[in-house]
Design a protein that fits this description.
The protein has 394 residues and is of the alpha/beta class. Helix content is 36%, strand content 17%. The chain binds adenosine monophosphate.
Length: 394
């Protein structure tokens, strides 16, 4: 049973940590994508519909030295008001926020300015957490995308509500979906890992070796694997200092009986640009001056077969430079294969960040099981780490 559903919000002011870190249009500074705001609505509305009022805390961008207009949550206020259908106020300072929170009546919402404008937030300062705690009577963390950060508004604040802290609906949903893959997934379980750097994905691959039946490697990181296996990779991305780690992964996979699938061919380019000359070669015979920017057609066929015979699929990271048309085919076809596997009954979880953008770009959002709102947070969960924002609620 959800903690939210068994808690009485009658007459209470709930502090909800949400993730309103949404992209803005560069010129108009209007909200470009309101997915994260919409994802927080069920929790907010539940409190309002059960006799409570709400104070919203969120970060917004990465301000370095205090307040800066482009990082103000005022830019989010209008869109939030349209979606909320409830009276909404805004406080630019914490002092004013604390005063106004005391006057809130049931059904009202107050949005506080970007928590990163306040000194100590990213250091998890306990004095700032204590100030935040004055904003309400209970604490709900619904910001899965920030749960891997130990900050005042995600971790420290929870200690002030030992009996009145809980996860929001989005956080619960994210964890339930992750658990479905992490503990006892239906097999075969295929993890598709891509993206630029192998160093960013090393820990997740290592952890997946003990859970997955198949691991597909694509994107820039595949070339460090190709080089470790003795291939010629031309000017492709490579992390020389990770070659030994990669060799260990290759031998561990063999030992554990996990099938590691690497791209046998690549779309290569004579420069890192959208209009470079391209050709298709073996991923192990890339000429000097050329670089692999996408997986090739044979790799697509190989990977598709693996994905279509899976019962569980996890996908994190693109297969190539999918932002550029000539190098997007690999990612597109893998996205389609994940959708097809889902239609055949597999459970598919898409990690946030670039894989979520790719699924949206190819209009496949409704054809996969779940698209996570957390990039770094989901990655850390799959690395086997405990997330500070969740631990603090324990
Ligand atoms: P990550 O943030 O590590 O998941 O990496 C995502 C980025 O990797 C995307 O912006 C892709 O354009 C980039 N990427 C994918 N494949 C390659 C490649 N073969 N060479 C260079 N960059 C790549």
């Amino acid at each position: 049973m959800s903690q939210m559903k068994s808690y009485s919000f009658q007459g209470k002011r709930a502090i909800i940590r949400v993730d309103f870190n949404v992209p803005l249009h560069k010129e108009t500074l209007e909200v470009q994508d309101d997915k994260r705001i919409k994802a927080a609505l069920p929790t907010i509305k539940w409190v309002l519909n059960h006799g409570g009022s709400v104070v919203l805390l969120s970060h917004f961008g990465r301000p370095k030295n205090g307040p800066e207009d482009r990082f103000s949550l005022r830019h989010v206020f209008g869109r939030l008001q349209d979606l909320l259908e409830a009276p909404l106020g805004f406080s630019a300072t914490l002092e004013e926020g604390i005063l106004r929170s005391k006057e809130l009546i049931a059904g009202e919402v107050l949005l506080l300015e970007n928590v990163r404008f306040f000194d100590g937030e990213t250091d998890n300062s306990s004095s700032l957490s204590a100030e935040f705690a004055k904003l309400g009577d209970c604490f709900i963390n619904d910001a899965f995308g920030s749960a891997h950060r130990a900050h005042s508004s995600t971790a420290g604040i929870a200690s002030f509500f030992p009996n009145d802290r809980m996860m929001g609906f989005l956080m619960e949903e994210e964890l339930n979906n992750a658990q479905r893959v992490l503990s006892n997934p239906s097999r075969p379980f295929t993890a598709i890992i891509g993206g630029a750097k192998v160093s960013d994905k090393m820990l997740i691959i290592e952890n997946l070796l003990s859970i997955a039946s198949d691991i597909i490697i694509g994107g820039g990181m595949a070339y460090t694997f190709a080089k470790a296996l003795g291939g010629q990779i031309g000017n492709s991305l490579v992390e020389e200092d990770r070659l030994e780690n990669v060799k260990t992964i290759l031998s561990k996979a063999k030992q554990l009986g996990v099938k590691l699938h690497l791209p046998q061919d690549s779309v290569i380019a004579d420069s890192f640009s959208a209009d470079a000359l391209t050709q298709i070669t073996s991923s192990h015979q890339i000429p000097e001056g050329w670089m692999g920017l996408d997986i090739g057609p044979n790799s697509i066929d190989d990977f598709k077969k693996v994905i279509l015979s899976s019962k569980t699929v996890l996908w994190n990271g693109p297969m190539g430079v999918f932002e550029w048309g000539p190098f997007s085919l690999g990612t597109r076809n893998i996205a389609l294969a994940v959708a097809e596997a889902t239609a055949l009954g597999a459970y598919s979880l898409i990690g946030g960040g670039d894989s979520a953008s790719a699924i949206a770009q190819f209009e496949l959002l409704d054809r996969v099981s779940y698209v996570s709102t957390g990039g770094g947070a989901l990655l850390e969960l799959f690395e086997g780490k405990e997330l500070p924002g969740i631990k603090a609620l324990g």
